[in-house]
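Q: Structure for this?
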Amino acid sequence: MPENAETEAKEQPRRRQARGERRIAQLLEAAATVFTTTGYTAASTNAIAREAGVSPGTLYQFFPNKEAIAIELGGRLVHEMQTAYGEALAPVDPATPLEEVVGAAVDRFMAFNCDHPVFFALMHGPDIPGRMAEDHDALHTGLVNRLETLMTSLLPEAPQADVTRTAHMVLGLYKAGLELVLAHEGAEREAYIREVKNVLVRYLDPLVGDRLGRSGSTATP
Amino acid sequence: MPENAETEAKEQPRRRQARGERRIAQLLEAAATVFTTTGYTAASTNAIAREAGVSPGTLYQFFPNKEAIAIELGGRLVHEMQTAYGEALAPVDPATPLEEVVGAAVDRFMAFNCDHPVFFALMHGPDIPGRMAEDHDALHTGLVNRLETLMTSLLPEAPQADVTRTAHMVLGLYKAGLELVLAHEGAEREAYIREVKNVLVRYLDPLVGDRLGRSGSTATP
DNA sequence: TGGAAACGCGAGCGATCTCTCGTGTTTTCC
DNA sequence: GGAAAACACGAGAGATCGCTCGCGTTTCCA
């Protein structure tokens, strides 16, 4: 390594031109479609470059390796997602009906995931790279924590282990519903979204339904 | 079927010795552990052979290619599974409480899947080979059909599309729960199994609860 | 306007994986 | 006992994929 006395920083910020930024966006978009259709491991960097209409060498001008593409793509989506669930899972007025809370949250997340199907493909595959799994875990535990605090505020007397377990269940159920939702379109997709809400409401209703002595299971019309 | 498979000329029936059958079982067991830990695509045939303590050449003495290993392994599991759910989802006395029906079915399937974790790995990965996907779809639609007939017998007046959708939901919810169950052990695993039952019972109860005027936990007009 | 740096190309290197082949060993059957 | 068939081995052929390298082109800036 006969390089200069510059501080050996891991990141040597390369000055990008507008052309480069455009190429990066192009490549990430191409990677999203290839990842969505074939999954991460099966997606070849040459295929991503071909999809973007550039040469393999050009791809490696902007990304050091295949993993970095998924990292960058996932990072941007996680950032978007966090702002989305920051609003969707914000502390809620305890008087709000459960249907409303669940319905609003599910609508938000479903809209996001339907707009960015690659997110599900990247987060769900068993073949995600190491650094990617960290991001996934971070997002996952972040969501679980939000759910936990939300539920603890509604059920202060419930054991912590039960709250955690229920939070994991809720997330797992949502993921299962998401898979079915993404597999359908139009009216059928809407119907599945309604079913996901039904599942979550009916699962959570007996837990939070009789807080404060309110025994009603479903709001009687 | 001793030796009369000659109607299909494609297969030249190779006469197996007891040693060969033992090797096949050995190889399938090794493949199960490798598939479970690394997934299908990431599992190398050399790794399977090494796990079984034989050479790569020996492996290909019994299986024409990597896919055939998964096919054979999956086929045997599907066969076992079908006898299992043939009993678990048998036509049920309409008077049986929902909790019992769901509880018994979930217990059976969970026991099977916990005994054979490779089944989940093979059926859930996005990287399954073509022929394998057919088996998966066959089992999947078989299960959905069973659920549909079971539910139609309880809800004769429900639209077919709703029944189908609910059946898919039930299967998806079970899969989501299975993933969580497999990720835990001991008492926590048992707790998750209970939660899966809770989810399914609470989801289905409003649908079948008020058949024949029997008012379940919830009574919706 | 000229030089440096960013951009772009595509053949191909090295690693890895599936599967084959030639050879030697064990089992079966007459 | 001996031939044929099944079993076993492991080096390596053939293919794929991630990634590199040398060189030509475009853009930026003094």
